[in-house]
Amino acid sequence: MKKVFSLPESMKDVWTHYCPGCGHGVIHRLLGEVIDELGIREKTIGVAPVGCAVIAYDYFNIDMTEAAHGRTPAVATGIKRILPERVVFTYQGDGDLAAIGTSEIIHAANRGERITVIFVNNAVYGMTGGQMAPTTMLGQVTATTPGGRDSSAGYPLKVSELLAILPGTVFLCRTAISNPANIRKTKLAIKKAFQVQLENKGFSLVEILSPCPSYWRLSPKEAKEWIEEKMIPNFPLGVIKGNLKDA
To answer: Whole-angstrom Cα distance, residue 160 to residue 74?
Structure first.
């Protein structure tokens, strides 16, 4: 019988703890495939923060470390500067990267740190109970905006566009995992982001629109549709800076 599936060597063979329909498992798989295909498993180090993203160390068969909430880019910067031959990436949610860690991500990007950032945007705080995040959209219902977010709480923060004006950023791309075509594009973007680091060009980030059915109060199927109908119009997909050539 033809083998059509195998676990990437860069991933552990363990049960997932993520909620049904959560996007983290898909993104983990894509990261594992890219690391294997680039042949960098033995020299890759991942940095995970507080939040749903922190459990990433349970799933990757590579060196992993934790960071305080929002400080992931700072920890990654230290590792990369001490071990410049290693491939260093952060794996962050929007509550971590776009709220508590806003200053960290801006300054790491502005310095052009040779790290790769995987930014999982589900427009809500996941681990702590579904509160409003900086990426929560106007009208979106959360635990702390039961009537929907309004402009008195600000507007959804577009991190990729914000970082695009900084000279230290080389590759910035927003993708989604809402359908097979977008999943394939997400993998291409992740591979390109790692290639930027391997070529020592500067800072790269891939923002991935990802479902959170539990705190969106939707079924997994509805959550994928919600990304298409609600998130993508607010967070347009595509390369924000750089290009996907040779990915």
So the answer is: 18
Count: domains in the chain: 1
Residue 67 vs residues 71, 72, 103, 143, 166: alpha-carbon distances, Å? 6, 5, 15, 26, 24
Is residue 16 assigned to a domain? no
CB–CB of 211/179 below 8 Å?
no
- Would you say residue 165 lies in a domain? yes
Overall average pLDDT of the 144-170 stretch = 94
Q: What is the pLDDT of residue 129?
A: 80
The pLDDT confidence band at residue 143, using thresholds 50, 70 and 90, is confident
pLDDT at 145 over 80: yes
Kindly state whether residue 210 falls inside one of the protein's structural domains.
Answer: yes
186 assigned to some structural domain: yes
Domain holding 145, by residue range, is 24-241
Output the pTM of the full model: 0.95
- CA-to-CA distance for 234 and 27, rounded, in angstroms? 21
Contact call for residues 214 and 126 (beta carbons, < 8 A): yes
User: Which domain CATH number covers 58?
Assistant: 3.40.50.970
For CA atoms 103, 109, 114, 117, the dihedral sign is positive
